[in-house]
Amino acid sequence: MIKIGKGEPFIKPTGIRFKQGQDPNIKLPKVAIGVFSHYLFYDVVEKFKCKEVGIIINANFERNVYILNYKGQLFTFFMAGVGAPAIAADIEELHAQGVEKVIIFGNCGVLDSSIKDCSIIIPNMAYRDEGTSYHYAEESDSIEVNQKYKDEFIELLKTFNFDYTIGATWTTDAFYRETTDKIQQYKNLDVKTVEMEGATIAAVCRCLGMDYFTFYYAGDNLDTVEWDERSLSGLVNIDKKKEVTILAFELAMKIISMDTELE
Question: Is the pTM higher than 0.85?
Answer without folding.
Answer: yes
